[in-house]
Amino acid sequence: MSIAIGSTGPFLAAYIENRPRFARIRYWLRTLFIVGVVGAIATALAPLWPGFDLVHDLLLLTMILGMTAGLAAAVRSGSRFAQYQAVGYAPLIILGLLVLAYELSTGAPVPYWPVAALLAVLVDFMVTAGGVINGYLTVKRERDEAWADVSEARIAVATDPLTEIANRRGLALRFRDPAHPRPAALAVIDCDHFKRINDMFGHDTGDEVLIAVAEGLKQENVFPARQGGEEFVVLIYGEDYQRLAETVRRQITLSVLEKVPEVPFPVTASAGLTEVRPNDTLDSAVKRGDEALYAAKDAGRDQLLLWQDGKHSQPRLVHGV
């Protein structure tokens, strides 16, 4: 019995949270096992000297009081698991104190105490099981919240906060994501004379225009991203990418006209389109798209130009539509 009671100390120590403020409490609870071993030795030596029975009872009392003090200190320090264990062990502690008080005062064993002990153990088992389930649910909830925070952080890092479409990082992640097919083409799109909008109507209106542009880029088989300022990059999927790129470019004007009516003139866009090659990186494809975009602006803006390899060493630019 002494070893059984002493073993509850390390058991309780294992339940209490492994935090610095509980270190002394955990240490003290573990030492109760040593007291239990000494009590068992005293029980074994009792036939040789009756005084060992008294030693055994005093050691039992020491373990019960030590367990009670340890649980109380852990509860005061904020241990959630200690709260459950304090409730679960309360019947056993009370029963142990009553049994010891009776035996020390009368010298006779308490009748029917094994039945009472069994009922107290049953209460402890039920409360402990509840504590284990609660602890599991708490850990699971904290883990789920942590994963949700990580997911939100990943989305935030890859999303442009103004337009709520992908930023350059999000574009790079999508470009190399094996869960999605490789894009057929890439277009770099830039709003024409955007500075004029900011100068005439202010940056708030300019931001509204950028939001409208992003909405216009959200088409089927298109993944849009804001590269910075008024420049956007779209990944285009499907064989008919030239037609789709031109449709997206023209949709920008319609979207701004609908969503920002205070801008009295059409907001057009120039675009450079390039086919995505099997060995392309995002940077290499964007570089060709940029070249086509600059050529489109030099050619008068409000148009799409397609980058193609020509027969000569220098690439030639042709109208995509």
TrEMBL record:
It is an enzyme of class 2 (transferase). SUPFAM superfamilies: Nucleotide cyclase. It comes from Qipengyuania citrea. The chain crosses the membrane at residues 27-49, 55-75, 87-105, 111-133. This is diguanylate cyclase. Its EC number is 2.7.7.65. Residues 182-309 form the GGDEF domain. Keywords: Membrane, Transmembrane, Transmembrane helix. InterPro entries: Diguanylate_Cyclase (IPR050469), GGDEF_dom (IPR000160), Nucleotide_cyclase (IPR029787), Rev_trsase/Diguanyl_cyclase (IPR043128). It catalyses: 2 GTP = 3',3'-c-di-GMP + 2 diphosphate. It comes from the Bacteria. The keyword Transmembrane applies. PANTHER family: DIGUANYLATE CYCLASE DGCM-RELATED, REGULATORY COMPONENTS OF SENSORY TRANSDUCTION SYSTEM.
